[in-house]
Structure formats: C-alpha cells, structure tokens
Task: inverse folding
C-alpha cells in the first residue's frame, strides 16, 4: 500500500497541468506546512524563527519545468535576490539551487554562466551554496559540474542519493577530494536498474556512505529524519571525534520538528531545508510520496 501511494504521488509530481494550477491558486491544502510562503520576505522571517531556535537554514526558491532561457534567467535572478536577502538580513542561511532551474536542460554553458554568477556573489558574502541532486538522468552532469565549481569555490556542496547503486563509488571519490556533500536517501522514482528498490538496502547504503565520508576533510550534511541513520551518524561522529565544522544534521521544514529540537538540545549542529516560492507543487508531491503519513496533514488542511 505504501509503495503504491509513493508511486502515485511521484507520478502526480510530474504533472505539469496540476503544477500550473497549483501556481495559480497559491499555497493551500496543507502545502504551507512544508513551504515557507511564496515571497523572499516570508522566507527570511521563517529563517529568523529557525535561527532563534538554534537552527541554521538552507533556502530553496522552488521551481520545476524550466524550458526557455527567459525562465532560467528569472530563476538565476531569484537565487541572487535570495543571497542578497540573506546577506542584508544577517540571518544564518545558505542557498540551495537546482541546475535544471538555471537552464541545464537548455544549454550547459547557460547553466554554468548562471551558476558562476551565483557562486561569485555567495563567495563575496561568505554564503554557502548547495547544488541539489535531481533525477538519475542529471546525476553525472551534476557531479561533473560540481567538481569543476569545487575547484574554484570553497563553500559549495552537492547531494548524493543513497538509493543509487553508483553512490558508494561517487562518495569514495568525493571524499578523496575533500568535497562537501549532503547525503540523502532519495526522493525521485527510479527504476531498479539504477536504484535499490528495497528500503533496507537503501538504509544499509546510507550508513556505508556516512562511514566513508564523515571522516573525510569535507563537510558531511546528514540529511534524514530516520532515527536509525541519525544514531549511526552519532556513533561515527563520536568514534572519530569529529568537530561541528565537519558535519551537520539536516532536516526538512515542517517534518519531525520534535527531532530537530532534540538534536539542538543535545548540542548537534542542525540545518533546516526551507523551500519557498509559488512553484511548490512538485516539491510538495515528493514530500507526500516520501512519507504517506503527511497526507493526514493535507486532509486536515482541507477540512479546516
């Protein structure tokens, strides 16, 4: 049943008609639980509240289905405006970006030009930039470009998905170069030819990736709400005597706030992934796919 619901919501996430309708009618039906409003101002206010609770933030201006250069330019401008808002407000936040938003599917050189603008601005103001990982078809090009950017910029990070067979080898290589990575389980629908179909195998691989990368020189962002993965990370952190600058726990805005607060009380560095913007539909569907219990929040939003 759970697998069927996951497939159902991942299928919905790719529906462009529903995505356009969601943009038109705004944040409704429970999505506001997971998305910090539609404007930069609302996002910065959320960041302030998170900071006051002892948590750092990474901001993501949501976007899907960028098909022309004008939309890619608009997405790059939103990233720059987000960096400007972070700098001007003085909040403790980084920026997360998807390279398809910046034109990767249109022209690689267009995307690279936008990324360099973003990374240059972030470097001038000492702000981290995380390059999100998307579906498997974008994995290799994302890693290739990340390696290129990491050669010139210190505070740039990318994401590795534990459900992919290739990830162990990727993490071994990234650890050797001292790269900064965020480790996630993965939220896209991928075939069993490239991804582990069983949760137990994904969990085992997630632990392997932590074992490989946590002792490395780069920052390891442990992005999970799974307490078994968190406990394993704590063991590795203790075993190697790692300091705060070498790792952080990351969680999604609106999910397991109790666990977020518990980690802060225990003295661990925590960063919350906070999305904002009007193109929230695909992100929202993937959150429902990840945890069907989230559907209950949506139903309560509709009924009240």
Result:
């Amino acid at each position: 049943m759970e697998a069927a619901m996951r497939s159902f919501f991942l299928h919905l996430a790719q529906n462009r008609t529903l995505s356009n309708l969601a943009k038109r009618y705004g944040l409704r039906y429970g999505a506001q639980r997971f998305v910090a409003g539609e404007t930069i101002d609302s996002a910065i206010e959320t960041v302030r509240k998170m900071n006051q609770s002892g948590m750092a933030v990474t901001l993501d201006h949501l976007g899907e289905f960028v098909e022309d250069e004008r939309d890619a330019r608009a997405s790059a401008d939103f990233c720059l405006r987000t960096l400007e808002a972070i700098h001007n407000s003085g909040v403790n936040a980084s920026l997360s970006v998807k390279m398809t938003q910046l034109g990767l599917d249109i022209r690689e050189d267009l995307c690279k030009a936008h990324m360099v603008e973003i990374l240059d601005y972030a470097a001038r103001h000492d702000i981290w930039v995380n390059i999100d990982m998307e579906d498997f078809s974008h994995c290799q090009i994302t890693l290739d470009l990340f390696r290129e950017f990491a050669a010139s910029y210190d505070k740039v990070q990318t994401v590795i998905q534990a459900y992919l067979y290739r990830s162990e080898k990727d993490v071994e290589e990234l650890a050797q170069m001292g790269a900064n990575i965020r480790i996630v389980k993965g939220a896209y629908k991928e075939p069993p030819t490239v991804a582990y179909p069983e949760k137990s195998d994904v969990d085992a691989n997630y632990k392997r990736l932590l074992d490989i990368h946590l002792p490395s020189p780069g920052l390891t962002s442990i992005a999970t709400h799974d307490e078994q993965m968190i406990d394993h990370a704590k063991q590795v952190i203790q075993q190697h005597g790692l300091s705060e600058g070498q790792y952080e726990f990351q969680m999604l805005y609106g999910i397991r706030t109790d666990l977020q607060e518990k980690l802060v009380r225990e003295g661990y560095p925590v960063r919350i992934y906070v999305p904002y913007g009007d193109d929230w539909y695909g992100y929202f569907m993937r959150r429902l796919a990840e945890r069907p219990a989230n559907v209950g929040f949506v139903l309560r939003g509709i009924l009240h």
About this structure: Residues 69-89 form the longest helix (21 residues).
